[in-house]
Amino acid sequence: MTEIVLIPGDGVGQEVIPAAAEVLAALGLGLTFREAPAGFGHFEKTGNAIPDETLADVEATGLALFGATSSPSGGVVGYRSPILALRRTFDLYCNLRPTWSLPVISPRPGVDLLLVRENTEDLYVGRERREGDTTVAERVITAAGSERIARAAFEQACERAGDRRLVVTIVHKANVLKVTDGLFRQQCKAVAAEYPDIGCNEMLVDAMALRLMRDPEAFDVIVTTNLFGDILSDQASHWMGGLGVAPSANIGVRAAVFEPVHGSAPDIAGQGIANPLGAILAAAMLCDHIGQPAAGDRVRAACAAALAAGVATADIGGSANTPTMTRAVLARL
Question: Residue 93 catalytic?
Fold first, then answer.
C-alpha cells in the first residue's frame, strides 16, 4: 500500500489538494493519505513554516502532493519557503515541467514538450548579501549538479521517445556567463555523448524565450539551469492553457514532491472557484512516478474529456467552480 503526504499549504492549496486526492482515491490503486501542515499561515500561528513532523512524514513515505504557499515578497524574519525547504532537505534536484496541448483551452494543438529544470543550485541557493549600497547574489553551478540534471533529461527523452528520435535542447547563456553556464554546457554535452540515439542541440536562453512563443512544437525535451527553467517553464505553460492547469514534479533520490505551479491566489481563496486541474495533473505525474502510468494516463484523459465537454473554471474561460470541475473529471475516469 502506498501512502502519500498531502500538504495543502495556504490559500487555494487548501481547495485543490483535496480535489486531487479525491481523484487519486477513485483510481482504485489502494493509496492512503496523511495530511501535514506547512505554509505562511502555519508560520503565523507557530513561528515555523514547515514543522519537523511534516518533513518526517515526507521522509517516511517518500511521496508528497503539495498545494501552494504564500511567500511575502518583502520578506518576514524567520520565514522560509516550505517548497524550497523540501527541495533542499530531500535534494529534489530534478524539476519536471511538461506542457502539452489540452482541448479547448490551449491556444494551438500539437505542443508536447518537457522542460527539465535543475532544482537546487543557481541563484536559488540563497547566498545574497548587502555591502553598503551594493547587493550581491552568488550563482552556484556545480559539475555534479549539471551532470545529473543532464542525465535526467536524456533519460526522460529515452522514456518519451518510443519509435521517434527525440532531441534534447540545452539552454544556457554561456556566451556571457562563461564560467557558470560554460560548466553547465560542458557537462550537458558530455552526457549527450552517452546517448547516441537521442539528438542534441543547444540554444541561448533569450533565443529560447522567443522560440517558445513562436514555434513550441519544435521542441521535445529542454534542459536548463534553475532560474532560466523557472522562467521558461512558466512561459511554456501558456501553450497548455495557463498556470492554472500546469503540473510539476520535484524528484530526488529519497523523495518526490508533486505540485501545481500556480500560487496560493489569496484573492480567490475560500471562494471555491480555484482551478483544480493543475493539482489533478500533478497527481497524474505522481502515478507515473510510482509505476502506475496507465492510471496517470486515465487521469490526463479524464481532464481532457472534461474540458472537451465544455467544463472549465473561470481562469480558463468557463463558469465551473472547484467541486464541479473535480466531479467532471471523476465522472470521466
Answer: no
Reported confidence tier of residue 109, pLDDT bands at 50, 70, 90: very high
Q: Are residues 134 and 255 in the same domain?
A: no
Q: Which domain holds residue 133?
A: 107-239
Report if residue 37 sits inside a domain: yes
Let me know if 230 is a catalytic residue. Answer: yes
Q: Is 102 within a domain?
A: no
**Is 178 marked active-site?**
no
CATH number at residue 64: 3.40.718.10
- What pLDDT band is residue 71 in, cutting at 50, 70 and 90? confident
Q: Is residue 100 part of a domain?
A: no
Same domain, 39 and 13: yes
Residue 173 is a catalytic residue? yes
Q: What is the mean pLDDT of residues 161-184?
A: 94
270-311 pLDDT tens trace: 999 999 999 999 999 999 999 999 999 999 999 999 999 999
Q: Which of 124, 195, 220, 315 is catalytic?
A: 124
Q: Which of 173, 195, 288, 315 is catalytic?
A: 173
- Give the dihedral of Cα atoms 44, 47, 48, 51; nearest 10 deg: -100
**206 is an active site residue:** yes
